[in-house]
Amino acid sequence: MSSREILFLDPVFTHNIWGGTRLRTEFGYEVTGSDIGECWGISAHEKGDCEIAGGSYAGKRLSELWKEHPELFGFLNCSRFPLMVKIIDAREDLSVQVHPDNAYAKKHENGSFGKTECWYVLDCEKDAALVVGHNASSKEELERMVGNGLWEEFIREIPVKKGSFVQIDPGCVHAIKGGLLVYEVEQNSDITYRVYDYDRLSGGKPRELHIQKSIDVIRAPARPMEKCVTDASSVPKNQWCALVACDSYRVWKLALDERLVFEQPYPFLQLSVLEGEGTINGVFIKKGMHMILPSGFGRTELAGKMEVMASSVGNCQDTQ
Ligand code: ZN
Question: At residue 214, what are phi and psi to the nearest 5 degrees?
Fold first, then answer.
């Protein structure tokens, strides 16, 4: 077998009313505007399909590579590339939303996938919070609170800081708040039900809410706060530290200040450099770069002073 190459990706960007400028000013991405909400660092989604940045597959879309070269992704049994990796700059609050699970989405959303997602807080202000879960103790109370718009009572905010890691299962009410910079790994799906939008107007009108579907899928009571958030701000240096392993994905953090040699045993491994610079097998890499190590890539050496997040598919590869 010929030796495989690292797949470097060109990110795709979205402009959003709640977006800002930090993806340009802090991550160095060449994108204009003061409403840059999301960097899709690794994505094969139809609304933002990353191009391979160089090498034998230069210019190919990730979705094309997935179809034409399944060997690069371990011949995974999925109808499409299963994950997305984003960096999100929320200048203002995002709407409060919830995602269905695979079973509900399949039935009610034309065979789509549901969504599990997780956030790693890259930066935030002191006393920052995220919306994770709610305060209704039962499905009946949930219907009463949501049906009557008792948002202050309903919405649960949890305190976070730089380095907090948050797991958002399907059915978990959630929202990123203004001032947060977040790294996100999620299932490749855009099925989102908007529960509440802070009564904001967009173009003179409120954005559509999906109250009935939300009530259908929201889990009540919510998981306890401490089960949703962990502190991943300081981890042992120069080794991969597991942050989560669920059905949909696994995520690790690496705080590198010297070097690390490893071989990845997964169908593929997604890497994102979130701080600093260094090399991967001798090739210069820096903050803001995203890449995939294909199946069977072999010996990998990372060197330098960097914070790197890695992710791969989860325990249940056949659910998609
Ligand atoms: Zn979400």
Answer: -60, -50
Q: Is 64 left (phi over 0), alpha (psi -120 to 50) or beta?
A: alpha
pLDDT by residue (tens digit) across 239-274? 999 999 999 999 999 999 999 999 999 999 999 999
pTM > 0.85 = yes
Catalytic residue among 22, 156, 194, 250: 194
Instruction: Give the separation between CA 107 and CA 112, rounded to whole angstroms.
Output: 8
- The number of helices, as runs of H, and strands, as runs of E, in the chain is 7, 23
- Ligand 1 centroid to residue 291 C-alpha, Å: 23
Under DSSP, the state recorded for 199 is T
Q: List pLDDT tens digits, range 126-179.
A: 999 999 999 999 999 999 999 999 999 999 999 999 999 999 999 999 999 999
Tens-digit pLDDT profile for residues 39-61: 999 999 999 999 999 999 999 99
**276: CA distance to ligand 1 center in Å?**
28
Q: How far is the CA of 121 from the centre of ligand 1 (A)?
A: 15
Distance 77 CA to ligand 1 centre (A): 25
Q: How far apart are the C-alpha atoms of 262 and 198, rounded to whole Å?
A: 46
Q: In angstroms, what is the span from residue 186 Cα to ligand 1's centroid?
A: 8
Residues 98 and 169: their CA atoms lie apart, in Å, by 9
- Rounded to the nearest 10°, the torsion over CA 296, 237, 89, 230 is 100
Q: Name the residue among 272, 271, 282 with its Cα closest to residue 304.
A: 282
Q: Which residues pair with 219 in a beta bridge?
A: none
Task: Report how far Cα 279 is from the mean position of its chain's Cα atoms.
Answer: 24
Judge whether 194 counts as a catalytic residue: yes
